[in-house]
Amino acid sequence: MNLSNISRRQALKSGALALGGAMAAMAAPLHAQAPQPIRLALIESLSGPFANTGEAVFRNLLWAVERVNARGGVKLPGGARPLQIDRYDSKGQNEEALSALRAAMDDGARIVLQGNSSATAAALVDAIDKNNERDPSRRVIFLNYSAVDPVLTNERCSFWHFRFDAHADMRVTALMDVMKDDTSLKRVYLIGQDYSFGQSVLRESRRQLGQLRPDIQIVGDELHPMGRVKDFAPYASKILASGAQAVVTGNWGNDLTLLVKAAREAGYQGKFYTFYGNALGAPAAMGDAGIGRVVAVADWLPNVQTPASEAFYQAFRTRFPKAADDYVHMRMQLLVEALAQSLERAGSTDTVPVAIALESADVTLAGQRGRMRAADHQFQQQLVVGVMDRQGVPGVKFDVEGSGYGFRVIKTIDASRAEMPTTCRMRRPS
Q1: By the 8 A CB rule, do 232 and 285 touch?
Q2: Is the distance from CB of 166 to CB of 300 less than 8 angstroms?
Q3: Regarding the domain with residue range 169-298+382-417, which homologous superfamily does it belong to in the CATH classification?
Q4: Spatial CA neighbour of 380 closest among 343, 417, 405
Q5: Can 38-166+325-380 and 169-298+382-417 be said to share one CATH topology?
Q6: CATH code at 38-166+325-380
Q7: What tens digit of pLDDT does each residue of 187-201 get?
Q8: 196, 125 Cβ separation under 8 angstroms
Q9: From its phi and psi, is residue 259 left (phi > 0), alpha (psi between -120 and 50) or beta?
Q10: Where does the signal peptide begin and end (predicted)?
Q11: For the segment 230-261, what is each residue's pLDDT rounded down to a tens digit?
């Protein structure tokens, strides 16, 4: 055995270890200097009957976050920081959502995003209000993109909650702006999911129909369990038997797709006035039977006829080219832009200054402008109403989810006209 060779190998090994240690020591400060991301916690149904809606939300928010990070992140006094979106599955249950909220806070998130259930949003608002009063060191801001029960920015408004979607009464008003001019319409059927949002849609529809079109007869008015009806044929039969010329519904997700599919199969020839009939399988479920008959209200639609809007939509489809992923929400893009703007204006990630900055957020993207109303934290933006038609006809350049059907814009409601008064009495932190 050659001892000199062994000694040489040991020396080389020791040298390599020393060099590796030195390199690790040099790399450690570089790693420590990497900017910490600003964590956003998405609490949403990512499994169960409404998983497709949660995944659609995630794609939209992810795209918005990627856009902010691509331009360098959020500019703060200590240096730019990227946004990071973390997923927490509520499984469509309030208790699971509250558990997810606690987990997100333990993980360091101070900005929470949710929207696909007003009941869940109300539970989160209550929990966040209590947490923020009890533990100021772990205060949380709640950004809501779809929970549209009007009470959330009226009697149950909160300083910590900001809604970026038009609430149900605003959306009903936009639909009624179209319905009131249809003089042939005499019989209407109201149907919705049996929880706070569905109830508010039917309540406001009854009220506005009574004011605007007292000659219209409401021939059906019912609520059904949310997310638990697998066969809507009995409901479709009742709609057909009622002689209704139109159905008004706030249904979303599978509850809408299955309803319109059952109505088509039952031979229903009337119109559907919807909040969410423009995607997630509804157009494909209706097919040709939906042409000229399915009406949807939204903050934006792909066939808004401007170059900026078209470029915005095509950029999303480039990022998510699969037909099944084709559901773009302008309001979610504006939400992330408003957050980035407010973080930079606050010059901090502390929740109170960020919330104060959010109260006056004013952002524009692809020609769509939105501003936050400080009185109740209800975002104000234009609304559009579209009617389903075949792709390729005038006004329908883009279809939905590869279905061959898109939505032609028939009414644009300016933000000033869409705005409604509030009963909010905001309690702000001292």
Answers
A1: no
A2: no
A3: Response regulator (3.40.50.2300)
A4: 417
A5: yes
A6: 3.40.50.2300
A7: 999 999 999 999 999
A8: no
A9: alpha
A10: 1-27
A11: 999 999 999 999 999 999 999 998 899 999 99
